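Researcher: We're reviewing a set of sequences before deciding which ones to prioritize for further study. For each one, I'd like a predicted 3D structure that I can look through quickly. This is Amidohydrolase-related domain-containing protein. If possible, include the structure in token form so it fits the rest of the review sheet.
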Amino acid sequence: MLYTHATIITVDPSRRIITDGAIRVHGDLIADLGKTEELKRRYADDEEYDLTGRIIIPGLISTHVHTAQTLLRGAADDLELVSWLCERIWVLQGNFTEADGYAAARLSIGEMLKTGTTCFLESMFADRYGFDGLCRAVEESGIRGCLGKIVMDIAKYAQDDAWAMHPGLVEDREMSLLGTVKMWEKWNGKADDRIRVWFGARTPGGVSDNLYKEMTEISRTKGIPITMHCAEVRADRDFFASVSHTPMSYCDSVGLLSPSTVLVHMVHLDDSDIKLLSESGTHVAHCPTSNAKLASGICRVPDLQKAGVNIGLGTDGAPCNNSCDLIQEMKLAAIIHKSISYDPRAVPAESVLEMATINGAKALGLQDRIGSLEIGKKADFVAIDVRGIHSQPWFNPVSAVVYTATGRDVDVVVVDGKMVVKGGELLTMNEKEIIEEAVMRSREVVERAGLTEKVKGRWPQE
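Model: Here's the predicted structure for Amidohydrolase-related domain-containing protein, in token form for your review sheet.
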């Protein structure tokens, strides 16, 4: 198949952009790319799909997602993190069934595909949500999923005993750590290698030192990567201080710093933390919307970049973002750092597109397969329609994608060589069915949790 007449942002090592470009897909790989005229002459017998007026980018990679939480979109707005988590989100999630988890995963994946995300890192899927269902959803949809199953053995947040998890979410070593290993043995590499299983460790304070050390040892011996929330809010800093550490000195002490680890949020860091991150090759997932909405603070992205730390981009969960649209996340990631630094050159559009593509691929250990458009790499790409009145005119295609487009402009999505979105519509999933199931199950979860009145807005509804 030839995809023709598009502007192609390759994000290859030379960062070349091809005007009136074409991509040839053979099987699951990019077999060729270049000028449309040349590829049409070279492959005259190939079927052609015309993408005039579209910009093609590598498939977007979200390095931090909570797929279960999409069922709770808008159910915990305008709350700070600890009360948001302990009084609302954990209570709701503690009332999930496996069927709810599957419905939520399908809703998340459908939204991600329609808005251009072709690969995601699930951060912390609880046992009660049904990990098999999450894997089935990935398999059926055609997306790539790096799937973190929760690891924990302490049922509270940070150092305060009052911040307790809902009983329905509490897991022990056998269920969480050993359960993840079992799921890794069952699912890792399945769905034509689109599924990878990860450890999804809870935030420090939710995991004992011994369990962290056991997990990091298994990670090294079996090659199971790790993702973990870290230094998100001031309460996290207080926890680290209570054990005589900074965030990264603690992580280093239990073996978490590694090129196979993605640490999420990373808002409250010292200069010494940034140095340790740089030296260890540990990756960071930046989630600006979540951090802003929960008033957690702003990650020191320019400082991390100067230190050579690899930074990916994530949308986090729907209750703290209300969207799985990574294109919208790119815009905020580009803008917010300019605002606080008083420097309009801070974190330019090109850097943000790298975060959402090749940097994300590096964080997931998949940079040789995805993250850029190069011959021999997997055919994962997105065509964004820029013909609309809200997109015209444009001069720089990277600017048009980062500052103007949203996920609603996504026209075509290809993953592993297969078209999964065409004309903005899902091809591998029944969108109407997904929505109806999600709406029904979201209401049931809220009712079981006894939070029907609390999830309503502040203004009266008749």
